[in-house]
Amino acid sequence: MPDTPSRPLSPELAACPHCDALHQRQPLARGQVALCSRCATPLYESRSYAPLLPMVFVLTGLLLFVIANSYPLHYLELAGRVQASTLLDGVVALWQSDLWLMALLVLLTSLLAPLWVLLALLYLLWPVWQRQPPPPAAASIVRTLSLLTPWSMSGVYTLGLVIAIVKLRDLASVMPGIGLYTYFAFLLASIAAQITVDAALKRRLLTLDTRQAGGQRAAGVAHQPALALPPTAREAGLGLCACCNLLVRMPVATKAALACPQCGSLLHSRKPASLSQTWALLLTAVLLYLPANLLPIMTVIRFGQGDPDTILSGIQHLLENGLWPLALLIFYASIVVPMMKIVVLSFLLLSVQWRSSWRPKERTTLYRIIESFGHWSMVDIFLISILTALVQLGTLSTIEPGSGATFFGLVVVATMLATQRFDPRLIWDALEQSP
Ligand SMILES: [Zn+2]
Ligand SMILES: [Zn+2]
Questions:
Q1: Rounded distance from Cα 260 to ligand 2 centre (Å)
Q2: Can you give the pLDDT at residue 368?
Q3: How many CB atoms lie within 10 A of CB 170?
Q4: φ and ψ at residue 77, rounded to 5 degrees
């Protein structure tokens, strides 16, 4: 069982999650964001909302989610026949094509994770609103939120829904259904709910501290590195919780795993085995990248005829049909982004292993870029799922998914996991150890 460390220290200090630099919190004007003085990662901001506001967004989002799942996303009309498809149809179509791994991935990222984020927020916000202590298992729920939020991809799915209409333009006429509009509104409500759960409110999800909440509403805090402080949290004997951002004392001598006193997550001053795990996941992604690009991802069958398309040949067909903005978008999401993630992560891993002191701030920015854009590669997977469900008109026209799509989905998962396992603070450790 992990030990619980001594009392937290977070109110006056802030540690950067990307370079571990320690900062003294200072008041900030309303709307300002405090950036890390070393690597420019946002540390905290002065936003503050009452719990009622995110509650309204969460409830609206849940209502919209039910509607979005009850009505068709698209209607496809071809030669007098009309086909409609819902969100779940996309998952079922993949499952029936024996691509069950891909079906589960689409189910998790487009439906289950976005739904769980809203349900968890509702469960945690209700007692805050009622000024009651946190509900049972609040810490576990907060941990699942931190785990599942990166896999909630309703934004990417919405892009897939719009692309499907453009892509099918030369095949049939496609009309957006109520499901598409409400899924888009659900996305907006989810974003609003997550934005309005600010740092002060997040703390209150786990602790009943009304005094602290009142104080947070008044001003907000600002960053400024205090010269008297040791440069990093680790040197000061502190550790930042990756789940709830609490800064806690971490005795250097102890070998036992420490648990965050606020959310119960295991605390590490650096992610354990970060380099070896990132390498392993990255090499897996590189190996999967070959079949993902060589095997067909989709076959469009018209009047009983059709050739399987790989990612690249699909882009080529889009260009031939004059849909070059769409071709560029798919090229960027399916070829450039995964390649960029593989190249950037390899570069970061090698630079850390060679103890390079070359441009640490720029390397940290590179990491932030692949961390925030990596999941957009999923758009091709979503598109295949949407098209497979929608274009099911027998001999007239049918779209079948190919096994390359499963490999591509696994590339996206492996690169996302590799990015999560990499610890950017290692970039800065080499600098501190050099004279
Ligand atoms: Zn930093
Ligand atoms: Zn924590």
A1: 5
A2: 95
A3: 11
A4: -120, 125
Interval between CA 345 and ligand 2 midpoint (Å): 27
CA distance 76 to 97: 20
- Please name the residue that has the structure tokens 């309703």: 154
CA–CA distance, 294 with 310 (Å, rounded to integer):
6
How far, in Å, CA of 151 to CA of 90, rounded? Answer: 18
Query: What is the whole-number distance in angstroms between the Cα of residue 241 and the centre of ligand 1?
Result: 15
Share of the chain above pLDDT 70, in %: 90
Give the C-alpha separation, 396 to 74, whole Å: 18
Give the tens place of pLDDT for each residue, 259-296: 898 899 999 989 999 999 999 999 999 999 999 999 99
The 10s digit of each residue's pLDDT in 11-30 is 678 899 999 999 888 888 88
**Per residue in 357-405, pLDDT tens?**
899 999 999 999 999 988 999 999 999 999 999 998 888 889 999 999 9
Q: Are 132 and 143 in contact (CB under 8 A)?
A: no
First to last CA, the chain: 39
The band of 228, judged by pLDDT with boundaries at 50, 70 and 90, is low
Contact 244, 202 (CB under 8 A): yes
Question: From the CA of 421, how far away is ligand 1's center (Å)?
Answer: 18
Q: How far is the CA of 48 from the centre of ligand 1 (A)?
A: 23
d(CA 59, CA 62): 5
Other CB atoms within a 10 A radius of the CB of residue 40 amount to: 15
Q: Which residue has the tokens 């970061």?
A: 348
Structural contact between residues 125 and 197, judged by C-beta atoms closer than 8 angstroms: yes
pLDDT at 230: 64
Ligand minimally distant from the alpha carbon of residue 38:
1
State the distance from the centre of ligand 1 to the C-alpha of 358, rounded, in angstroms.
16
Instruction: Please give the Cα distance from 105 to 96 (Å, whole number).
Output: 15
Where are the chain's structural domains?
Answer: 13-267, 274-433
How far does residue 17's CA lie from ligand 1's centre (Å)?
A: 7
In the structure encoding, which two tokens stand for residue 409, read together?
Answer: 């989905």
**Among all ligands shown, which has an atom nearest to the Cα of 143?**
2
Q: Which ligand is nearest to the CA of 368?
A: 1
Could you tell me the distance, in angstroms and rounded to a whole number, from the CA of residue 5 to the centre of ligand 1?
A: 24
- Residue 267 CA to ligand 2 center (angstroms) comes to 8
